[in-house]
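Supplementary Note 3. Input sequence used for the single-chain structure prediction.
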Amino acid sequence: MYLDRAWGQKMKIKAKAVLTIAAVLAVVTFGNLEAFAQDAVPAPQSQVTAPFTAQQLDQMLAPIALYPDSLVAQILMAATYPLEVVEADRWLRDPNHAALKGEPLAAALDQQQWDPSVKSLVPFPQILRMMDGNLDWTEQMGDAFLANQAASMDSIQRLRQWAEAAGKLSSTVQEVVATAGPAITIEPASPDIVYVPVYDPAVIYGVWPYPAFPPYYFPNYFGSVVLDSFGFGWMGVAIIGPLWGWNHFDWGRHRIDLDRDRFAGLDRTRDHDQPQIGSTWTHNPSHRLGVPYRDPVMLGRFAGRTGALDAHRNFRGYPTESASQLDATPGVRRASDFGRSQEPLTGMPPASPHFPPTFESFGRGAVVRAEAGRGRDSRMSSPGIGPSRIAAPRPMSSGGGRRR
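The predicted structure, written as discrete structure tokens, is reproduced below.
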């Protein structure tokens, strides 16, 4: 009987050991399956990003709201193609390209694949440099315009009304300011020259109503231009026929109208037979070059328009040495990283030592870098220069001519 009890006890121990091993195996197996499932099933997309508020829109649009209408429209359209803005700015830094003027410049741009809005900013190198040097601001403007054209255009009108109420906005020898219904329009006074106003937004709009959202200000892009006692300076740019006057705001309908034939002549990539391409501007995702959209809603609106678009594709900076020395290590920025007002963008991979800090946030000095992207050598042949940070609002030196 003793042997029977001992044998029985031994069998119980073995059974318990078997059960324990089975339990451990189940846990390990389940854990591996769970890990496999997590790897196999993509994480759910982030929720729809909150829309930009009126305060944020006024803050970001304050630096350009008083530009001539056609120029503002070109900037907003181009901002939806931020990587092409980078490419165009780097292209223009090549001394051979920077020396081009007038028709030779138009002919050289005709060989580029950029959107017409981007091409049309090349005669304004200071503005192109400002957009490239403050790329997060550019991306935010583009995202805001894509998300709600009406809200962006209303913000511009609101800012113009403030400048007018402050006694800062009126017709001059450089521009014609007029009222068309409820809208304030700004057009060049000369058919040959566009004068770009240079101003401090903290001064021109009167008492800024949003202390928590001070207007963005980029004072270091306009060289020797000085401001007069009214707070304005002027930068004159000669009009190049094919690159100017092909668009205008329809303020009442909150849209940008196009001269379709002239637009088609500038765009070497768009299929002009598409029925949706008409006299009203629509965003062309093929010029987005894989830069992610701000949220799944915007992705759904635009990603399906072209089979070539990959909204999660990486995009790259370019090396200071030569295109042949590209580092192919990818870095990804996701749509949830965009559109934060004065907040740092974090979680980015470190930049390759072969690349300049092409993309940088202006929010509290946080640096966001992305590298290894599209690599069209013919589309960006000049060396990269690191971006500048946004400056806190402060008065610029006064002097020069008076606003009339």
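The CA atoms of residues 234 and 299 lie 39 Å apart. The first helix runs from residue 2 to 40.
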